[in-house]
Write a structure and sequence with these properties.
By secondary structure, the chain is α/β, with parallel strands linked by helices. The chain is built from 11 helices and 5 strands.
Length: 290
């Protein structure tokens, strides 16, 4: 249940424009799933599940064939990584189940109990309201929309060595840097670790990890399975960095990009961020001068 993470997943498929539908898809999945469990309009919802599975499988096939995505990221943290052929096989199995439910429910006649139906509708309504709130609470536009349409972040364009960040990393203007600010106790940070590992090579000249939580024994680092040693900064960037995790890209000694609350995979970062112009940096500078 992470709408922002789901939006980034859709972007990583190469379907950036559709990432804005992430919270809508989450709520729709909850409605269809809950109605199937409680047998509310079961044939309609079984048909809806067939359509959704076909659409999702087509999206994964596009990502797999065109963009080389293997791990579909399905089911969030509960999902199990599997090769592409296993993902297709699983989806075919789920489609067969959905078709079987649809065929059965079309033939089946139900004895209606109005009191029981009202109770089921109330339970589904409570679940959907809770899910809608949580989905909205975790939603933020994907990096695609933040980069293309949002106002530039206030840190963009600042010289790193003249900011609090300069106390922990001395920047050479001739090099590029990726800085990841995180906490061992932040769920969003833990969920982004696999994506963060991809940034260590091939994206910038240097990768730096800064943690706001201590780990003197190294136990937390082992638990989250990272093979690099972050710099412990405590509250040294309080007021400078607003959210965790935050990913900062530095070029020419200045902050060029700031990504908050989630970390896109490297494919999305390269295709969406590194292909852009410096217009946002100039706009931020002009705004500050005004």
């Amino acid at each position: 249940m992470n709408a922002a993470g789901f939006g980034e997943l859709i972007s990583s498929y190469g379907l950036e424009w559709f990432s804005i539908l992430a919270p809508v898809i989450i709520v729709a999945e909850m409605i269809v799933g809950a109605c199937l469990v409680f047998r509310l309009a079961p044939s309609v919802n079984a048909f809806a599940s067939i359509v959704m599975l076909l659409v999702f499988t087509a999206a994964y096939a596009y990502a797999n064939i065109v963009n080389g995505v293997v791990d579909c990221g399905c089911y969030g943290e509960m999902g199990m990584k599997m090769p592409a052929w296993a993902t297709y096989l699983r989806n075919v199995f789920l489609l067969l189940l959905a078709v079987a439910v649809f065929a059965y429910e079309r033939r089946c006649t139900h004895k209606k109990d109005s009191n029981l139906s009202r109770l089921k509708i109330a339970l589904v309504a409570v679940m959907v309201l809770a899910g809608t709130f949580w989905s909205g609470n975790t939603w933020a536009p994907s990096t695609f929309y933040m980069n293309k349409m949002s106002r530039p972040h206030k840190l963009i364009g600042l010289e790193v060595n003249k900011t609090p960040l300069g106390e922990y990393i001395h920047v050479d203007p001739s090099s590029t840097y990726v800085v990841w600010v995180f906490s061992y106790t932040c769920n969003g940070c833990i969920n982004s670790i696999e994506n963060v590992k991809q940034y260590r090579t091939g994206v910038a000249d240097h990768f730096v990890a800064l943690t706001v939580t201590p780990d003197k024994s190294g136990r937390a680092r082992k638990l989250v399975d990272i093979d690099f040693t972050p710099i412990e900064i405590g509250d040294g960037l309080a007021g400078f960095v607003r959210y965790l995790p935050t990913l900062i890209y530095i070029e020419d000694g200045k902050i060029k990009y700031v990504i908050e609350q989630t970390v896109p995979n490297v494919y999305t970062f390269k295709s969406v961020y590194l292909e852009m112009s410096n217009d946002e940096i100039l706009l931020t500078k002009q705004t500050k001068e005004l």
